[in-house]
Backbone:
């Protein structure tokens, strides 16, 4: 609805702007046209005044200068000078049909209009009479308008009122036209919004936008088919990985059983027992790899069920650190807890979160063969309702440009660099576990600057019941 209102506002604004622009352009062109028409040659009023001033009398004869005669000829005009008795004292290019004597009534008639269909203009010539300049027939139109003074006085206000009335009328028409347009567009905008939310839509094709409605319906159908195909493919892939994992476990358990028996069989030589131990360890790694692959696949396609409960993030960190220390952590690595905020209560799957914390610590151990110092910190932001866990080491770090690759699955096309060591499932698994808990995972590193990872999860400020401590 908000998008439709925005379209209506823009439509009305554009309509008003276009109409005002066209009106102003028309007024400008009209002004240019009138100015051009009025200025084509000398103005008749100016011409008759100039002729009247330029005529002079010598020895009872009247004379007109050559430039003034040329000016009359240039405008195809004729002229005559009448005395107070209506007799012609002087003339130039006078048409033959023009009479030679006029009464005061005749003068009154033609002084404001036409003389025998010739448009004429008059000017008083002091001491001599009346100068008359005539133009060819059908060349000029003369109109007289008598308007009340108050009407002329209020003309600017009337013009402004007329313009405001036109703008108001334009606005009403724009609203009517725009409302009809919005009625046609609103179902389309709702449908596009639904497509964005991955919902199926159908719009009844009608009106001027019927073709667009059919296109949206077709796009919705295609997206629905593709989503179904992708879902089926993802389910098939996940089921295939789960099936392979299940099928591998049986022979793998046999390998582990026999290799363990051989390793503990003192009838074998020491070298044979060592070889059996190597087989057992590699089989255990293979089992972990299969389990990780199955878990990542389930998380990737959101098929992994979450057994959520309220836990303290600080308690999980204590448990994971204790587990590393109790399993003979190499003395080259030092685990140190800098801060544990016991207010860090979250709603999560305890098993998956422990796995995520373990993977982050294991990542620092795995990529720093010469050892490093690993720090852990749990803090809370009660204002933003976020519980955060920071794990950082002072190891050799990784190239900053490859950080994004670390969160992609090893077989993903989004990876820019190949994996050179390890199976590459540790950090992608962490990323998907945190995402499943509506949290975020942030990585930061560079060559020689160590490795920093930060988990942020929604914080629960108050809860009932006792928390289980490990």
Residues:
């Amino acid at each position: 609805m908000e998008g439709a209102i925005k379209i209506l506002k823009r439509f009305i604004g554009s309509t008003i702007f276009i109409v005002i622009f066209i009106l102003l352009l028309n007024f400008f062109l009209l002004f240019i046209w009138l100015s051009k028409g009025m200025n084509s040659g000398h103005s008749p009023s100016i011409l008759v005044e100039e002729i009247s001033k330029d005529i002079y009398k010598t020895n009872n004869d009247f004379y007109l200068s050559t430039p003034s005669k040329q000016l009359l000829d240039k405008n195809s005009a004729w002229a005559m000078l009448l005395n107070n008795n209506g007799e012609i004292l002087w003339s130039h290019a006078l048409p033959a049909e023009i009479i030679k004597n006029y009464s005061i009534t005749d003068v009154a008639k033609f002084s404001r209009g036409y003389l025998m269909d010739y448009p004429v203009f008059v000017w008083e010539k002091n001491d001599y009479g009346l100068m008359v300049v005539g133009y060819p027939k059908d060349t000029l139109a003369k109109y007289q308008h008598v308007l009340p003074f108050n009407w002329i006085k209020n003309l600017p206000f009337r013009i402004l009122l007329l313009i405001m009335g036109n703008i108001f009328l334009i606005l009403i028409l724009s609203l009517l036209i725009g409302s009809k347009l919005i009625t046609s567009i609103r179902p389309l905008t709702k449908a596009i919004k639904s497509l964005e939310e991955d919902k199926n839509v159908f719009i009844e094709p009608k009106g001027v936008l019927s073709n667009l409605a059919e296109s949206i319906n077709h796009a919705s159908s295609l997206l629905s088919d593709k989503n179904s195909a992708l879902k089926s493919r993802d389910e098939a892939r996940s089921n295939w990985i789960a099936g392979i994992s299940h099928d591998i476990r049986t022979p793998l358990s046999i390998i582990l059983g026999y290799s363990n028996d051989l390793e503990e069989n003192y009838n074998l030589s020491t070298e044979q027992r060592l070889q059996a131990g190597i087989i057992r360890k590699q089989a255990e790694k293979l089992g972990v790899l299969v389990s990780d692959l199955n878990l990542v696949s389930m998380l990737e396609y959101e098929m992994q069920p979450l057994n959520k409960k309220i836990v303290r993030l600080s308690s999980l960190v204590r448990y994971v650190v204790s587990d590393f220390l109790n399993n003979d952590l190499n003395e080259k690595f030092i685990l140190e807890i800098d801060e544990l905020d016991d207010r860090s209560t979250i709603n999560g799957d305890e098993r998956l979160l422990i796995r995520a914390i373990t993977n982050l610590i294991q990542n620092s151990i795995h990529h720093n063969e010469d050892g490093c110092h690993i720090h852990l910190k749990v803090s809370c932001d009660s204002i933003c309702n976020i519980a955060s866990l920071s794990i950082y080491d002072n190891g050799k770090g990784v190239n900053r440009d490859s950080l994004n690759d670390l969160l992609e699955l090893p077989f993903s096309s989004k990876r820019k660099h190949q994996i050179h060591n390890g199976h590459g499932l540790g950090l992608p698994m962490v990323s998907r576990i945190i995402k499943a808990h509506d949290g975020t995972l942030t990585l930061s590193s560079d060559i020689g600057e160590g490795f920093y990872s930060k988990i942020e999860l929604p914080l629960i400020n108050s809860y009932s019941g006792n928390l289980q401590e490990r």
Q: What stands out?
A: The chain is about 50% helix and 20% strand. Residues 44-134 form one domain. The CA atoms of residues 60 and 89 lie 10 Å apart.
